[in-house]
Backbone:
């Protein structure tokens, strides 16, 4: 799965977003790799988090509002990452969350995304404000602070 997936290309054509170069995406994966892992995903028993499960027909725009009180809610944008050293996508938080299942369609296993903002015309990633997407819903990291 990548930003060149048919579903992702169609989404990109219909939303204001930008492509992020692999070097910037690697910053996020470097942060994730330093955290406790299980066999194929983060070990959430060792990481403070909040689970936001999918309801019937979720994700939907109203489902995305559940993130407003989380660390992700502090960001105007989200980085949708697919793999280390691959391009990623940055889009508006509400639009990304409402379509997170589409953006990760065909991606096996857990997928990770993080907060992003534009500061002085430059993309700024906040890698500690991240979440994991899976079939069960989304687990949002709650950083100490």
Residues:
């Amino acid at each position: 799965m990548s930003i060149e997936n048919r579903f992702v290309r169609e989404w990109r054509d219909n939303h204001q977003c930008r492509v992020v170069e692999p070097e910037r995406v690697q910053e996020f994966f470097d942060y994730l790799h330093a955290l406790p892992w299980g066999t194929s995903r983060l070990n959430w028993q060792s990481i403070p988090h909040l689970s936001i499960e999918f309801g019937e027909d979720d994700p939907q725009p109203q489902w995305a509002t559940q993130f407003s009180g989380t660390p992700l809610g502090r960001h105007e944008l989200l980085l949708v990452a697919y793999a280390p050293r691959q391009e990623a996508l940055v889009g508006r938080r509400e639009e990304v969350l409402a379509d997170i299942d589409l953006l990760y369609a065909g991606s096996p296993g857990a997928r990770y995304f993080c907060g992003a903002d534009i500061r002085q015309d430059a993309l700024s990633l906040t890698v500690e404000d991240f979440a994991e997407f899976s079939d069960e819903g989304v687990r949002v990291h709650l950083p100490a602070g």
